TrEMBL record:
Signal peptide: none
A matching Pfam family: F-box
Protein's name in the database: DUF295 domain-containing protein
InterPro entries referenced in this protein's UniProt entry, alphabetically: F-box-like_dom_sf, F-box_BR-signaling, F-box_dom, KIB1-4_b-propeller
Domain called KIB1-4 beta-propeller: residue spans: 69-345
Organism: Brassica carinata (Ethiopian mustard)
F-box domain segment(s): 7-40
SUPFAM superfamilies: 3-carboxy-cis,cis-mucoante lactonizing enzyme (SSF75011), F-box domain (SSF81383)
Length: 380
């Protein structure tokens, strides 16, 4: 048979496979492997990844440098092995589909694809410079905070030497050409890096306030700041980001903790009065007023990735997928509790909560973090 025809047939078959079978089929032969790269990119239902905790005094041979993946639809777990023992002392700051933004103990950032184990190393922090010409020196402390020294080279004065943790972070990856964009917050500043840049750049909003959370969509970064307002930046116009709008919440509103974006590009703000209970708000662009929304429609909210996804192929309609509280995520010594790991799916229609405590209860080793993510697969 014509080899092109075979390839086309294999592609047709592979595009019909489930996520797990797709990855199995890739290993059949080199023809199947190259066919997998030509398959249309698809997304599966949300999976969980659980990151291993650092267990002190463990003998070297019993260190488990693996992450656990869990597919709630098949009720099946998978293990991603050989991630290197530094994974135990590395925090996950953000995710984008199968890609995760990681920060290791030596203050090195990298992107990790949890399905292919591919890594992309990001520049060191030595080269960090602000849009106003300041230079920064970062020194990692024993916990996950930094001591940051700020130099202003115009008059050779050391301005500041203070201890900061990393706040919110954002990752965006174009899976076709591996373009990526990373932002993270420290103090009242934001540091960003995109593929092709030499190093990190630092900027500040005119509001001079700390970032609580942020989302990135179509070159625009929306930053939720301490006073509850949202400032936005456009990264598509030249060298430095351009601040283009600020939205201030009405006084009766609301202790927003998170931002998210819907499939149609609408920015949502999320507050949580109590555990497993979330209020979702959207802003009317005309009046700039926030109002609570009762339903996500035919979408589900993946809070760990700050996006909504279509509720089909097993994704639960009007449900909110979340893991435990963000504040613990930056604490290196935090372990997920075996009997209450905080991982859940909340039905926004009737507030019913599905828990996943069996994942930590049944594991011999502790986990420090868990995130829902969308395993994307296929090649183009
Ligand atoms: C999922 O699998 C676990 C063990 O692998 C089992 O204990 C549990 O009952 C299963 N849950 C469902 C809903 O089938
Ligand atoms: C600032 O530092 C530069 C290079 O280290 C040096 O050449 C310059 O004389 C210094 N300026 C002042 C005002 O100390
Ligand atoms: C920003 O806020 C900090 C702390 O409140 C203050 O020390 C600093 O001077 C402010 N910077 C500007 C440019 O307003
Ligand atoms: C959520 O609750 C509604 C109302 O009780 C129910 O009809 C729907 O099936 C529930 N969704 C899921 C995914 O359980």
């Amino acid at each position: 048979m014509d080899p092109m025809l075979i390839l086309d047939l294999v592609i047709m078959v592979m595009e019909r496979l489930s996520f797990v079978d797709f990855y199995r089929a890739r290993c059949v032969s080199s023809v199947w492997y190259s066919a997998s790269k030509s398959c249309r990119m698809r997304q599966a239902n949300p999976w969980l990844v659980l990151f291993p905790a650092d267990v002190l005094h463990l003998p070297l041979e019993s260190i488990d440098d693996s992450c656990k993946l869990f597919d709630p639809i098949d009720n099946k777990s998978y293990t991603v092995r050989d991630l290197g023992s530094d994974i135990l002392r590395t925090s996950c700051l953000a995710s984008y589909n199968s890609w995760f933004l990681m920060l290791d103990r030596k203050t090195r950032f990298y992107l990790l694809n949890m399905l292919t184990r591919e890594r992309i190393h990001l520049p060191s922090l030595d080269s960090m410079e602000s849009t106003e010409g300041k230079k920064f020196k970062f020194k990692r402390n024993f916990d996950s905070s930094f001591t940051v020294t700020t130099f202003h080279y115009k008059d050779n004065v050391t301005l500041l030497s203070t201890c900061y943790g990393i706040g919110a972070a954002v990752l965006w990856v174009d899976e076709r050409n591996k373009d990526y964009f990373v932002v993270w917050a420290f103090d009242r500043s934001l540091a960003y890096h995109k593929k092709g840049d030499d190093g990190w750049r630092v900027f500040r909003s005119s509001t001079n306030q700390s970032c609580v959370d942020m989302v990135f969509i179509e070159s625009k970064l929306y930053v939720l700041i301490e006073d509850g307002s949202i400032t936005s930046f456009d990264f598509s116009c030249g060298d430095s980001p351009m601040e283009f709008a600020s939205f201030t919440p009405s006084p009766e509103c609301c202790d927003f903790e998170h931002l998210a974006v819907t499939l149609s590009g609408q920015v949502l703000a999320i507050s949580s009065e109590e555990r497993h209970s979330y209020d979702i708000y959207k802003m009317d662009p005309k009046s700039s007023k926030w109002s609570i929304i009762k339903s996500l429609g035919d979408e589900a909210l993946l809070l760990d990735q700050r996006i909504t996804v279509p509720a089909k192929d097993g994704v639960l309609k009007n449900c909110l997928y979340c893991s435990y509280n963000d504040q613990f995520r930056r604490d290196d010594d935090y372990n997920l509790r075996e009997d209450d790991n905080g991982i859940c799916v909340v039905n926004q229609t009737n507030n019913e909560v599905q828990l996943f405590n069996h994942l930590t209860a049944s594991s011999p080793l502790p986990f420090k973090d868990a995130r829902w993510f969308i395993p994307t697969f296929g090649g183009k």
